[in-house]
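Sequence in, structure out. First:
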Amino acid sequence: MWHSVGVPPAANVAIDLDTNSGLDNYPIQIIDATPNDGEYIWVIPPAKYVEVTSSLDPTSLSDKCKIRIRYSGISNAAPPTTFKIRPSLTLVAPIDNSVPAEVGSPITIKWDLPLGNVPFVKIRISTDGTTWPDANPPTSAAKGGIIASSVDSTQGPTGYSAWNVTDIMTNTAKVRIEKSNDPSITAPLGGFFLCQRNYY
């Protein structure tokens, strides 16, 4: 959102983005012409996600984004604060109890290809759906733990199944995927699933 002085409401303005605190001269064009009504809703195109969620260091996340509004060569003053555009992660499986996990057997964990700069993901399991400990391997005492610390994110659609379920029997298990070096970037959680021992 923005406010303008001296620019006709019926005029069109351009909106640009810089992921480096405005130091790179706003190279990413959001839109070249939109009405000067003070508001524009931008749905980030999938093809743009890597560009707008990357910083000068390609392994890190840009938390230094700034927006510029332009009209006939006149630009707004740089905003005093920066913001972050987060990549998007989506967990595909397990998200319910349709296929219970069995202790001692592999469980297949799937996710969609990330939108944005997420080269590797960390995978965690929780036995109560709310506790996400750093125990490795996961244990009942810790209420879960880390399944894998760094998995190539492109593996998501085919599934990661290199982990055999440890002895963490529960009917309230949940899996979480997150960006390996930024646990604030996670996929929305699915539902509970069952971890059980096979007795036959």
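Second:
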Amino acid sequence: MDFTKLRSKVRAIVLSCTGFIVFLIILRFFFDFLVVNRNNFLISFIYSITDLLISPFKGLILIQLQIPSSNVVNFDALFSIVFYIVIGIAASEVITAFLYEKLQDVIINFIDGIFKFIEFFILLRIILNVFRYASAQTVPGIMASIMNVTNWTSGILPDIPVPGLGFIDLSALCILVVIVIIDVFSEKFLYYMFESIEKKEKPNNNISTQISKSSPESKTIIQSKPPINQNIYINLTNPNTKTETQKSAKVIPVILPINKSDNIKKKEVTLKPGNKDNK
């Protein structure tokens, strides 16, 4: 199974669904701004779908924007666009984290996806505290759950008030920075740890061991490198053709003096023309 192609297909499906949702909300934003006729069937259908998508963010951001006309700026729609884009990207990373051949890649990508969700929720809390006057208990929809889950990030440092808006949650901001740093270093640490484990488990094919059996008590391990392939060229003369020097050479039997206990061995010596011993 080709996991690379499978991850690409799954990521494309998730991001395509996210893009379709974002496209509908963008249409809703422009419809509200241009004050289109909602009696049209297509526009009414888009409004009915986007009402469900924007409902968790209704009344989330309290900003009074004065426009010299009847146009309406739907900040809830703008916030929902950013929310669905980030959620879609994070969801694609978490889902595709399980589509790896090696277990170490699954673990690393899954942990990275979890960190991304935590960072996004803390960032949402900071944004809500900046642009909203009301308390966290009155936050509509799913945002109330996110605010309650991230309550542990507040109360460490004093808040900084923002004139005309809410306040900057300095505690949540500092914790967000710390979590981002932990996310980066944890990913590098996991890669280093799994690589070191692979190196220890991987057999060393470049070095072979030979055990010397000279004595039963001691064994010597000799490390040797693999033989290097070399091309050896040998020039051989044709035995049927003889040079002039070979033709004029004479073979004379010579008896060499040896020990008395040994048998007499006979050796043939070839003498060539021009040799001083050839008489």
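Remark: The radius of gyration is 43 Å.
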